[in-house]
Amino acid sequence: MTFSVVLADPHAAEGPRIGVAVASKFLAAGAVVPSARAQVGAIATQAMANLRYPAQVLDLLERGYAPQRAVDAVTEADEQSQHRQLSVVAADGRSATFTGSSCLDWAGARHGPGFAVAGNLLASARVIDDMAEVAEQVLGQHDVSLARRLHAVLAAGDAAGGDRRGRQSAAILVIGSAAGYGGGSDVAVDLRVDDHADPVAELRRLLDIHELLFGRSAVLLPIEGSIAERLARALATLGYPTDDLEASLALVAGIENLEERLAPGEVDPVVLEFLEAKATQT
């Protein structure tokens, strides 16, 4: 009923990341399919999903099991395993998949270093073939966020026909040590489209907003010279004081939920462009 991708990138520009993306003709697939643990691995459990698999598999990986050994252990202990499907990628890139013989056609999976893709009730085998091809292409794109790369793989499956019953939900989960808001959790991205006519496209829209609010540009601009002048003009147009640009920037960032992009004495170019665009609309 679902197609999914699991990716791991220990060398991502934003720090080691691992994540899952999923789409399905199923309500809120993001609440069922993806699970991940920082520095351990990630799993997608689907078809007649066994919700005990994620904790079991991740615990085994943390104890040193290889992904294939972990998959074998949980499926061999499960009387209903032939109705299940799961994909596992360890944080170091080792991977494994399992597709039970009773999963509904078309069902199958592919995996390799750093990735695993799987699906059941698919339009055709091309869904998995196209996803695997894109997964292999994007794995080395360390300067692109893992969430973006997961979405690219998911979009390839969607374009190839995806779930043969239609579309309903999609989700992306990305985990990294202290990667969450303010460094207070390991959840870098957790976006879900629970019920939508075009969930993969809607997921991209949400990802655009997420990266605006919570991303950080590689190069920040010192608040001086022409940059200070541009910032002052935008802030003044928007009705903020300009006697202390950093204080006003912090105020507007709090109002616009851009505080994750703040840095002392500097302005993120994305924030500056956002403020200037907003000022032109005033």
Would you write up a description of this structure?
The protein is of the alpha+beta class and 282 residues long. It has two domains: 2-214, Aminohydrolase, N-terminal nucleophile (Ntn) domain (Glutamine Phosphoribosylpyrophosphate, subunit 1, domain 1); 221-280. Helices cover 35% and strands 24% of the residues. The protein has eight helices and twelve strands. It has helices at 53-62, 67-76, 126-138, 146-159, 199-214, 225-237, 245-256, 269-280, and strands at residues 2-9, 17-24, 34-37, 41-47, 84-90, 95-99, 108-112, 115-119, 169-175, 187-193, 221-222, 266-267. The strands form three sheets. Strands 7-8-1-2-9-10 form a six-stranded antiparallel β-sheet, with helices on one face. The chain has a four-stranded antiparallel β-sheet with strand order 3-4-5-6, covered by helices on one side. A two-stranded antiparallel ribbon has the order 11-12. Helix 6 crosses helix 7. The longest helix has 16 residues, at 199-214. The chain is elongated. The N and C termini lie far apart (47 Å). The model has no long low-confidence stretch (mean pLDDT 96).
Strand content: 15-25%
Residue windows where pLDDT falls under 50 for at least 5 positions: none
CATH class of the largest domain: Alpha Beta
Gyration radius (Cα, Å) is 21 Å
- Major pleated sheet: 6 strands, antiparallel
Output the structural class: alpha+beta
- The number of distinct structural domains comes to 2
CATH topology-level name of the largest domain: Glutamine Phosphoribosylpyrophosphate, subunit 1, domain 1
Strand order in space, largest sheet: 7-8-1-2-9-10
Helix content: 25-40%
